Queue: 2 jobs
Job 1
Amino acid sequence: MGKGSSLARRVAQVAENALVQRKHVTVVDVICGLRWSYQRDIDIWRQGRADSLERVTAVDAAKMADAVALLREWATARGLTATETAQVSGSRDRRPLRFTADGDEELERQFKIEWYSPELSEARRRQLTERRNKAPDLVVIVGSAPWSCGGCGATGPHHIMEDDRPHCLSCADLDHLVFLPAGDAALSRRAKKESVLSAVVVEFNRRRKRYERRGILVEDEALARAEEQCLADEEVRLRRRERDRVRREAGDVEFQAALAAEIRRLFPGCPDERAQAIAVHAGLRGSGRVGRTAAARVLDEQAVTLAVVASVRHLDTDYDHLLMAGVPRREARDRIRDRIDQVLTTWSA
């Protein structure tokens, strides 16, 4: 079998996997799936640190074009919908991402086409397309190697790419932003929303061989507003938790009363205080006891009986003593079975 057939099979397999997982397929999915490039290399390209995807790919533009053509054949045969999307870098100049070193216009257009499953609704497809066409976050990089600013020659902890060179935050007009470490998703989301200008801060993890998010840069005033919103929300959450607690406690009291009444109905000879004690013990929230099961919550007769049997086993027999003496659990239960039956018979009268 020829090399072309082998590549076609590999492209189809990679594309099929992507389609199953995400309902759409991109050229980058295929290139990564073929192991021609890796996610860290794709990140470098999208950050604007490589002038083309070809620079961080193990094959040349011609080979990549072959894969794109095979992807188009496969997608057309599958009845997928073709959509051309914008590709913009996370660099300060927001330049269009280029796939090939030469930048042939027609070839670049083919690389930008993404294929969507016909199973996707029109609304979902439009949503995905809008998301893909949206300019990505500006990406600020924590320097892991020595670098110097392409504008002033200085260095520092962070830089952003512009005109194919790293630039310090001052030269990139980002030095007025403040750093918000990752960790509080609600605060980060609100601060970014409030900030007119923001950037994502990433750092390369050498052990995992990938860029990882470390936080965001946002305007100081935006962060202050976001903090106020989160504080207000915390007060709301505290009040809601208190209301839920009171409601749960009230529900527990009502359930325990109903459980005690059902115990007395099934076992009329059971003393009232004992029935109440069984109900409270078995129905304790978070206990995992039989009274907390779904069956017991609807007062299923078998579940209620099991709660009573458990109480008799521990309080009216030698079961616990037998366990402490090292008697196996099943043997201990066999020894006390007659005693349990005796108590239940008395209470059932």
Job 2
Amino acid sequence: MFRRPATAAGSSIMAARLIADGGIIHHPAGGTHHGLRDRASGFCYFNDPVLGILELLDSGLDRVLYLDIDAHHGDGVQIAFADDDRVLTVSMHEEGLWPRTGTIDDVAGGMARNLPIPSGMHDDEMRYVLHEYFMPLAQKFSPQAIVLQCGCDILAEDPLSRQMLGNQAIWDVVGAMIKMAPRCLVLGGGGYNPYGVARCWSGVWAVVNEIEIPPVLTITAENILRAVKWTHSRGKQPDEKMLTSIKDPWRGGDIRDEVRTRVQRLKGYGL
């Protein structure tokens, strides 16, 4: 109960120290964004994103962007920095999911932005949000560091959300955001389908390190995925392609009016 989350928390603190002078670190065991000052919450014993951001602030930075694309609202991080104008917290999450916070009009103390998305979000909608909101907002804020929580429970295969995303859309966000600040800490987060998690975060590692993703896995990697044992009341046996490749096919579609409307509304908030 203690050692695992303490190690993840210590790793986020260490990562923040290591990028004090610049750089990118991928820390997939981090991203426990629900933990609160006085109690555990939502599978999160400690809040390692908060601890990492505090370390960045202690190093002398005064503009840190926290971007959270997990299916669930990053409530613990928003609460921690609600009254701190050095940290802009941005959360895109599925509307109506636990903890049922993060409404579009919730700006906390003024430095929070929340984009609740209806179920059924696909890759083209994620790309729209990235180019219409995340990137322009980052350009305006001009962060000295970005902490990116890229929980992959927004994938179509995940049993805890109702989104329709493939992993390429997540990689697009990572690839764009790591270029928008001299320091970047890329965390994990939610993810409840082990096949989807392994494939998605392996791809994040490849993006961060500019490694070309092969069309077909090596037999060693394939055997690792095939050896995974997973039982879940809402789980399904993985498609064969999930066991032989990393990259999902692009899962696109029309961008819904409600997604466009919410993005435009948020843009009106400014900084």
